[in-house]
Amino acid sequence: MTTRLLLALAACLLGIAPISAVAQNGPLRIEITEGVIEPLPIAIAPFLTEGAAQSLADDITAVIKADLEGSGLFRAISPNSFISPITSFDSPVQYADWKAINAQGLVTGAVSVTGDRITVKFRLFDVFSEAALGDGLQFSGSGDSWRRLAHKVADQVYSRITGEGGYFDSRVVFVSETGPKDARDKRLAVMDYDGANVAYLTGAGTLVLAPRISRDGGQVLFTSYDSGFPRITILDTGTLQTRALENQPDSMTFSPRFSPNGSTVLFSLSQGGNTDLYSMPVSGGASTRLTQAPSIETAPSYSPDGGQIVFESDRSGSQQLYIMPANGGEARRISFGPGRYGSPVWSPRGDLIAFTKQNQGRFHIGVMRTDGSEERLLTASFLDEGPTWAPNGRVVMFTRETAGAGGAPALYSVDITGRNLKPVPTPGAASDPAWSPLLD
Amino acid sequence: MYRLSTLIILCAGLALSACTDRFGGAVPADGVAGSNADPSSPAYFQQSVGDRVLFAVDESTLNAAARATLTEQAKWLQANQMFTAVIEGHADEQGTREYNLALGARRASAAREFLISQGVASSRLRVLTYGKERPLEVCSTEVCYSNNRRAVTVLATGVGA
């Protein structure tokens, strides 16, 4: 079996392959939407090494554990309490020994190295059903991709137990901030979703705002002040080359967003003091005006199918959320609660809109259904803003800024149930996160 | 009464704008070209004419004080034709980033339109929004916010606006 798998994987950067053909579904299950109060206890057996360095196997186990515990849905049982340590990947599981320590699930795995390629294989067991939960799988990749391999294992475990897609093997583009509050230096950076592998995409001494990452991760749209004026710029994440999008004379552009297929950029253009929504091909060319109103129209975001746009407008007299067809036309207001609503973002699942709400001097991140019903505020602080969706539409990341002269922004994430609010580690002050889709 | 209020406004503007950089922050007095003693210098424009106007929360309407300052700015610009200007619009931090960019553009544009109405050629005036990205004062109370909601007229020479 191993030989066949290796052959199948030989051409892949990050290979994926089943280990056994037997799939059984037990009752091991978390319903995220119900709001998980008590994390599910699971045993993550330290991954074995099959020729790899022990430290590599330990590092991979640690990332899987951090992913699953970080989701707020799982609690990893200390290996010190394991009754029968796993000594071989293919040994039969002694379910009674795992039931005895109240492990609901068991993850086992092993790491091997062939040349520059690492292979990580794992199995997931439903302890109380005494059955495997899904097939064993293995992932392989180059030596420097070990964190991604670990994230992929964690995504599989998360996905099999929750029935939702995972989100761990993903990246976040954000703005790294330094300097005093009245002269902030802002540069683009990218990192893994958990804060690892930070890389800077633009130089120091600049002002850049609100990046967005393309579906394939290859391009980043952002607002740059390099020309002296705010202007939408596109960056190739491979070459770090940038190109300002075509501009109309005496106009300023900002708040860009990719269409789901990545070919169109939706943005705000301000001219003569009036800000409206436009779209244009990412490759360049003529722009199309989508709104024609003396009010402010900004912060647009496409629905996952590309057919509709949610945006904010103060046409009613205050900032509110609206949805209109992707080619413009009549908009319907969806926000009606007290306060002001801005920076709406359509969930990748299509079911919810995340937004920033300002009410009575406080800022909130919230979600509502696309018809405006079931509004739910997830956070409250001096200044929370700019939500971005995890690839599975179950977590949002956002900017939280503290007050005063020494105030600084940081990244936070929270579940759509309002649980598991926590800071996302960054090297320094950070703002405007944009979460990528799951990587291939 | 009108003359008196104008005088008060000008004095207030003077106190605010002494020794300021292009965003209106405190810097050494040589941050802007020329001497305040030279009425055709950018330093005089900034410190004696008054280079900024302030706005109410979430508003871009010019109040009487703002119109008075802009009237003086227009006179100065008409008398000093070698200068062009970029009008920078700013917002306080109580708003979302994108909305504040749009609001700053509205404020800068309101100031520009007023200057044009006073006879300044539109080709000499360009608007720029910084949203909430460049506060003048950094506290998180109305004392600071009221000075951050501003449009600042920044002079340049020899560059088409």
Describe the secondary-structure layout.
The complex is a heterodimer of chains A (440) and B (161).
Chain A lengths: L1 H8 L5 E4 L21 E5 L3 E2 L4 H17 L3 E3 L18 H5 L5 E10 L2 E10 L4 E2 L4 E6 L3 H17 L8 E8 L6 E8 L6 E2 L7 E6 L5 E6 L6 E6 L5 E3 L7 E7 L5 E8 L2 E8 L6 E2 L7 E6 L5 E6 L6 E6 L6 E2 L6 E7 L5 E8 L2 E8 L6 E2 L6 E6 L5 E7 L7 E7 L6 E3 L4 E7 L5
Parallel strand pairs in A: 2-4, 2-5, 3-5
Antiparallel strand pairs in A: 1-8, 5-6, 6-7, 6-8, 9-10, 9-32, 10-11, 12-13, 13-14, 14-15, 16-17, 17-18, 18-19, 20-21, 21-22, 22-23, 24-25, 25-26, 26-27, 28-29, 29-30, 30-31
Helix pairs in contact in A: 2-4
Chain B lengths: L1 H16 L24 H9 L1 E3 L9 H16 L3 E8 L6 H21 L7 E7 L10 H7 L1 E8 L4
Parallel strand pairs in B: 2-3
Antiparallel strand pairs in B: 1-4, 2-4
Helix pairs in contact in B: 1-2, 3-4
Protein name (chain A): Tol-Pal system protein TolB
Subunit structure (chain A): The Tol-Pal system is composed of five core proteins: the inner membrane proteins TolA, TolQ and TolR, the periplasmic protein TolB and the outer membrane protein Pal. They form a network linking the inner and outer membranes and the peptidoglycan layer.
Subcellular location (chain A): Periplasm
Overview of this structure, please?
The complex is a heterodimer of chains A (440) and B (161). In chain A, strands 1, 2, 3, 4, 5, 6, 7 and 8 form an 8-stranded mixed beta sheet that branches. In chain A, strands 11-10-9-32 form a 4-stranded antiparallel beta sheet, with no helix packed on it. A 4-stranded antiparallel beta sheet of chain A has the order 12-13-14-15, with no helix packed on it. Chain A contains 4 helices and 32 strands. In chain A, 11% of the residues lie in helices and 41% in strands. In chain A, a hairpin with a 6-residue loop joins strand 30 (409-415) and strand 31. In chain A, helix 2 crosses helix 4. The two termini of chain A are 24 Å apart. Chain A is globular, with a radius of gyration of 23 Å. Chain A folds into 2 domains: 2-162, Rossmann fold, CATH 3.40.50; 171-435, TolB, C-terminal domain (Neuraminidase, 6 Propeller). Chain A has 440 residues and is mainly beta. Chain B is an alpha+beta fold and 161 residues long. Chain B is built from 5 helices and 4 strands, in the order H-H-E-H-E-H-E-H-E. Classes of the chains: A mainly beta (440), B alpha+beta (161). The A-B interface holds A 180-184, 186, 207, 209-210, 223, 228-230, 250, 252, 254-255, 268, 270, 272-275, 296, 298-299, 312, 314, 319, 342-343, 356, 358, 361, 382-383, 385-386, 401, 403-405, 407, 432 and B 23, 25, 60, 86, 93-99, 101-103, 105-106, 108-110, 112-113, 126-129, 131, 133-140. Chain B: Residues 1-17 form the signal peptide.
